[in-house]
Amino acid sequence: MTNFCLVCEIAVTPTTPSIKCGGFCKKYCHIKCLNIAESEVTAIIANKNTWICEKCSLSDRDHPVSAAVIEAIIAKQLDLLRNQLQQSMDDHFKRLNDRITTVENNVRIIQDEWSEFKNSHNNDLSGYSLNDVVSEIEDRKLRSHNVNLFNIPESSASAIAEKVTEDLKHVMKILTPLGTYPQLS
User: Fold this and answer.
1) What does the pLDDT look like over 138-179, one tens digit per residue?
2) Residue spans per domain, the chain
3) What's in the keyword line of the UniProt record (predicted)?
4) Does domain 3-62 correspond to CATH entry 3.30.40.10?
């Protein structure tokens, strides 16, 4: 549908600079046909303000809008805005609650895994006293530079000194027939 200029009644094309009335008629007008300065047109377009033709402007003065109508329009817009804001907040809080629930579930899983880990390791060490563990570590340190002899029974003594004495007896049994007498230190 072709639009015609309100002033000169010549067709308004997409390539012709024009402006649309923001009043009741919604008709176009060539910018060159307006009785306003070019800077004002530029300001209207730049600020996204509404231009109202003279006919619509006079019509508005003849039929002023009552305060009650304006209040009703504002109230309707506020209700719409309030509803949109409420919906946006509800969506946001739902997403937050979902994320909190996920984090809480992950914390529970980690706590359960930690409890299982502690219980399994406590059970591993529950048969040993601290003294037994320390004695075993000391014994391993003393034996760290020893020579390994195979097919000799392990000492059943609980004290380190007794284990050393038994091990020396076994070594002496092996080395004495060879004519070698080790120096004990």
Assistant:
1) 888 877 877 777 888 888 888 878 888 888 888 888 888 877
2) 3-62, 65-127, 132-178
3) Metal-binding, Zinc, Zinc-finger
4) yes
